[in-house]
Amino acid sequence: MEVVRTRAALRHARAGLPAPVGAVLTMGALHDGHLSLLTSAGAECASVVVSVFVNPTQFAPTEDFGRYPRDEAGDLGVLEAAGVDVAFVPPVEEIYSPGFATAVDVGQIAEPLEGAARPGHFRGVATVVAILFELIEPERAYFGQKDAQQALVVRRLVDDLAMPIEIVVCPTIREADGLAFSSRNRNLSPAERAAAPVVFRTLEEARRLVEAGARDAEAVRGRMREILAGERLVKPEYVSVADAHTLQELERLHPGEVLLSLAARIGSTRLIDNIPLTVA
Ligand code: AMP
Fold this sequence. Notes:
280 residues, alpha/beta, 6-stranded parallel β-sheet, 36% helix, globular, binds adenosine monophosphate
């Protein structure tokens, strides 16, 4: 595996890679969720390039950029063992040159849910993804369903800017008790970790209700709030029953694709999760 830290070194390494090149963009502190993206990319592409970059522009000043988990040595070991061809691990100034002023705004799809809870977040995401796609020039890029709105934002970005990149969305990987793997799980205390599975339990109960015939979306959201309220350590930010394509909140569930999602704080750690669902 080649480890590159500059744009120039990346371009040089990229030029020698057989196509198709698959990209996996990460913020590091790698876990089994990331590994599943690497495995899919490795199975479907001739070469795999992975970026490890904690992107400052997608964090608000009040957020956890400073305490976001970082483990470069561990990450490089994981990537090497996974058979990755190139690891791109740039310092911030290699992505954002002095005077950097451009931002990518993908419009409505970035507004609800995470966009409303984290103003400016998806502008930072879309901007860094555009830069990384420009530098890596992948034929395919792999994203996790765990960050469902992010995947929709990235699809909008590549469609609108005519980037010739196929976006592949891979299923959410979970611990045995249902908690979705997340780098932020490393910040949970033992008591918080014990409370965290309520996030997935809530989504599962919402799915069960819909599958049993519930069609009043607000009633489903109400039940989700109730379940979360049962965990003292958990502070819900939002619960959502939305159209899976537009992410607009539903009143009634009609046949089609629905996204059940929520965000909650457990202590100082913020967790998000979702379940996509087809209503028959
Ligand atoms: P991150 O390092 O958190 O920015 O995530 C990098 C990529 O891994 C994104 O496409 C995420 O959606 C994906 N990812 C993160 N957690 C999981 C998970 N538990 N299962 C599947 N994909 C994930």
